[in-house]
Amino acid sequence: MIVLAVLFGAFAAGLVVIGVLALRACRAADVLSAAVARASDEYQTSSADLRERVGRSGAGS
Description:
By secondary structure, this protein is mainly α.
């Protein structure tokens, strides 16, 4: 009986640890996703600005 209680306790502790790690991974993924979206938006803005400047200077036409 004691062995079953210990096994159940270990199983429950394992589930808690896995849950905490999954939560941390999701939060880290959200932060990374926001950073990538921000960097991507800055890159697109920079590219659009460069095309506008090239267009105004008459280069390439």
